[in-house]
Design goal:
35% helix; 24 strands; elongated
Length: 614
Amino acid sequence: MARRQGKAWINGLGWVSKKPTQERDYTGYERAADAFLLWTFRWFPDKLLDLVRGPEADFEGLELMQRVMLRAYARKQRVSFTGCRGMTKTYTKFLSKMVDGLVWPGCQSSYYGPSYKQMAAIADKTYHQIAHDYPLLASWWRVTAQSKEDFKIETDTGGAFYIAAMRGDNITDVTAEEYAQEENPPFDYTEYKRVVLPAVRLWHNVGGVPDENFVGYKKHAITSAGRKQNHAFQTRCKTMKAMTLGESAFAMDISWETVVLQLMRPYQWAADLKEELTAEEWMREMESRYTGADEFPMLTDETLMDSQRLMVMERQHCCKDKNCPLKPEDVIYILGYDVSYENSAKNAKCAVSVLKLTQQEDFLKRTFYLKQEVYLDDWPPPDNQMVQARKLKDVWHRFCYEGSQTYISIDDWQYGKGVVECLMMDVGDGLPPLCIYNHAAYSSAELPGALPVIYPIKAGGTGVTDPDFEMIKYAQTQFENHNVELLTGNQREGLEAYKARHNIKSDEQDWYIVRPYQKARELVGQIQNLKLVPSGAGMSEKRISKSIQRDSWSALKYALRFAQKLEKRYLMTTKKKSDWSELLAKYEKESTDIRPGAGSRGRTVGSRRGGRMF
């Protein structure tokens, strides 16, 4: 049978008329294919690198972790990689930025590290290695600056990748290299925070319109592990938290097993390093684990974390609040005060720490107060000693209440001696003057009606009333035995708990309420920055980073010192009777002599006079 014109046979339907032929426009296909290819290379940069790898490259291909790193760099705003040695962290980051310079024309990327000299050497070596492995990729870039402390590469489309930290700069993103380095030289976090990060403000535009597909304001960090006291650990934790909340963030710790299993390095290389490094160095460099202080930490990280359990801070005596379950005589407040002066060390401040002492019900802790740091603050040194005395006395007055005890423990050396003398004067605030606790000193300067609430701290090595080592050991013991509680490090939870306790509905005073919680976080940082070093008097504290002060820690330590004095005077001399006391009292008058004839017949034990033993 002849085929019908314009018909097509379909089983089950028979002959069906063909649709008229439609002309297709192929003019847009070239542009669409280019757009799809560009999209692929933007979000899968490792695919582009597979295509442009040179035949004489030192590596057969990218490994799994390198691909993960490249894709995270391309897609996430905040990235924190903590990788072991031999992970090619810098090499992979350079590859990422050189691809970005092609697929995102006009991007200005900054590379920042511990020192320009160190970074320039690393950048130069890494670039030449990439030029050998990926010659086609490197051909799009040209070196425009190269010296001992400078390195810069650029593209003809306006992209740049350089080492810089210039105030007022405009950059698309920044990468922090060796973020946790603390020596030879240390990473300058202050400059990075104040100069580099504010410069990350440039966006990618197309035709004068912001590109919605662009991932801007990238802040990436790559490093080996360091101490938990380092800012790198805090950055890693924040990035990891943001990642779990579904934000544009990615964090990962990569250990040495990954490098060995992916055949990037031989096992013998790792085994040899393990023999040379100490246990802590091995954990940081190879296992990518953040650890505590190098040795002799002031307080362990676990102890500090466990002590941050106090949710509600106090700005005044608790008995001034409504529905307070405590009586005035059940509460003691101690204000620890660290004195500073105008021409003191850089960034030094006056700090006050308020300890709230309450007696504990636990039988084993009956001789120790529960010490809660309910409030702390600091301020720049005033112009003179009298102003310091007035500010301190104002805080002291807020924590006073009729029937309760409130004391001041203050540094009495040098400038502090003048502040103590001012506290003993009439400062014109309508409050009675103060004097030394138990009238132990400055008795000739006492004014009529003065209140004996000041305890002058005479800290030092030997031959002083308050040795540093004794104060440190007491503070350590009290923290480890959970007798000290600090304000929570979660500012949001602390703010909500305070507002719920005081039935505050508005948000106008949030900045005012949250300040003590912020200072509590700074206090923890100060404690983590301290380590103990052997000295003639036992042990003394030393700051790891000189840029971090210890004002709040000193104030807390002084308050704890006076709390120790009060415990010895009141609690340890009036111990709670044991639960066995009432039972044992029944047998106090009965004889316990077991000799024959002393109340009952007893058996005497004499020496053996010989004979066979078996």
